[in-house]
Design a protein that fits this description.
Blueprint (H helix, E strand, L loop, with lengths): L16 E4 L7 H28 L2 H5 L7 H15 L3 E3 L2 E12 L3 E11 L2 E3 L5 E3 L6 E10 L2 E9 L3
Parallel strand pairs: 1-3
Antiparallel strand pairs: 2-5, 3-4, 4-7, 5-6, 7-8
Length: about 160
């Protein structure tokens, strides 16, 4: 992913496909609610991330990750590199193509997400904007933990086929 290291998110996106692992065939309504709830968490998280990136706010970005998260450290380094070039990234969104909920509890969400970044613009200090290309779909496992009442990302791993 060209913009950030985590490549996750769902701002303004709809799930094109998905299922809740472990649900019985008769639990499709429950499965759909679980997917919708997980997508809401992911969308809220992604909207916060996009705001941090648009402002170039590294402290804000670090607050979205569990302390010491390799994904958070990589995302912070990517944001720092964009800032060093005098650029902000605005309008970052994600198109979620598939979402599977592998685990859910009040403190943890483990998701299998296939998405791609869309709508991002590189903006320089003079306010000139340039559209960044949408990336190709990527499949990742995203491990979110609720700490201090907020969902934070612990880990993002490339999913194996």
């Amino acid at each position: 992913m060209a913009i950030g290291a985590t490549g996750i998110g769902a701002a303004g996106a709809a799930v094109v496909g998905g299922r809740l692992a472990g649900e019985h065939d008769g639990g499709r309504a429950s499965s759909t609610r679980a997917e919708a709830a997980a997508l809401d968490v992911l969308a809220a998280w992604d909207a916060q991330r996009a705001g941090c990136w648009a402002r170039g706010d590294r402290a804000c970005l670090r607050g979205l990750y569990v302390e010491g998260s390799p994904a958070g450290l990589a995302d912070d380094a990517a944001l720092a590199a964009w800032r060093a070039r005098g650029l902000r990234v605005e309008g970052m969104g994600s198109q979620v193509l598939a979402l599977d909920v592998w685990h859910r509890s009040p403190e943890r969400l483990l998701l299998d997400v296939t998405d791609r970044t869309v709508g991002a613009m590189a903006v320089d200090a003079a306010g000139r904007a340039r559209a960044l290309p949408a990336d190709q779909p990527s499949r990742r496992t995203v491990d979110l933990r609720r700490t201090d009442g907020r969902w934070r990302v612990l880990a993002v791993r490339e999913a194996r086929p």
